[in-house]
């Protein structure tokens, strides 16, 4: 059990350092580690925990606690959560001090601009990973994404209704 806890802490500590632009940017590596490398769960289980973490109120990285809980109960929850948030907290405190110190330097704007496409690419990779396992039909997936995008952007529909609609489509298409 201690080996599993140390492994959980190690995995999430590494992911913590790589999570530029938010925790969802490391979702593909998180999924690879718990599904493919350590075989602690299936890809479908990972997607179910991810969906639960996104639907529940609270921080969007609740997936970390759920994965730890799934693997090793309460000790796993603590190991994964501390591993994910402690290193990035300390790095953030140090970097923010330096970032403020060099606020007038021209290279700072270049670094900020360069990190935007990196973050966007990591978020797209995360979405693709989740979609690959969850979608039964590429065409249906495209239709749902297009309808959801139009509903949110053009009609200003609340995202919770979009989630309910997506769940309904998933339930209906799962039965046919």
Q: How would you summarize the topology of this molecule?
A:
Blueprint: H1 2-18, H2 27-37, H3 43-55, H4 62-101, H5 106-134, H6 138-153, H7 159-175
Helix pairs in contact: 1-4, 3-4, 6-7
How many beta strands in the DSSP annotation? 0
Which parts are unreliable, with pLDDT below 50 for 5 consecutive residues or more?
A: none
- Fraction of residues in H or I helices: over 70%
The averaged pLDDT comes out at 88
Total helices: the number is: 7
Give the N-to-C terminal Cα separation: 42 Å
Largest sheet: none
Rounded Rg:
18 Å
The ordered string of helix (H) and strand (E) elements is HHHHHHH
**What structural class do helix, strand and pairing data support?**
mainly alpha
Large-scale geometry? globular
What percentage of the residues does DSSP assign to strands (E)? under 5%
């Amino acid at each position: 059990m201690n080996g599993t806890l140390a492994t959980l802490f190690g995995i999430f500590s590494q992911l913590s350092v790589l999570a530029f632009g938010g925790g969802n940017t490391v979702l593909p590596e998180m999924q690879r580690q718990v599904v493919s490398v350590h075989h602690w769960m299936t890809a479908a289980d990972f997607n179910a925990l991810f969906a639960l973490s996104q639907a529940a109120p609270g921080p969007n990285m609740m997936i970390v606690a759920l994965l730890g809980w799934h693997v090793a109960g309460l000790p796993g929850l603590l190991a994964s959560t501390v591993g994910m948030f402690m290193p990035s907290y300390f790095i953030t405190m140090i970097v923010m001090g330096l970032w403020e110190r060099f606020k007038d330097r021209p290279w700072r704007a270049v670094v900020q601009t360069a990190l935007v496409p990196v973050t966007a690419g990591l978020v797209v990779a995360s979405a693709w990973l989740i979609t690959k396992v969850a979608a039964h039909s590429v065409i249906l997936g495209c239709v749902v994404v297009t309808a959801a995008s139009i509903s949110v952007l053009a009609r200003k529909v609340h995202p919770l209704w979009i989630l309910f609609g997506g769940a309904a489509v998933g339930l209906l298409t799962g039965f046919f």
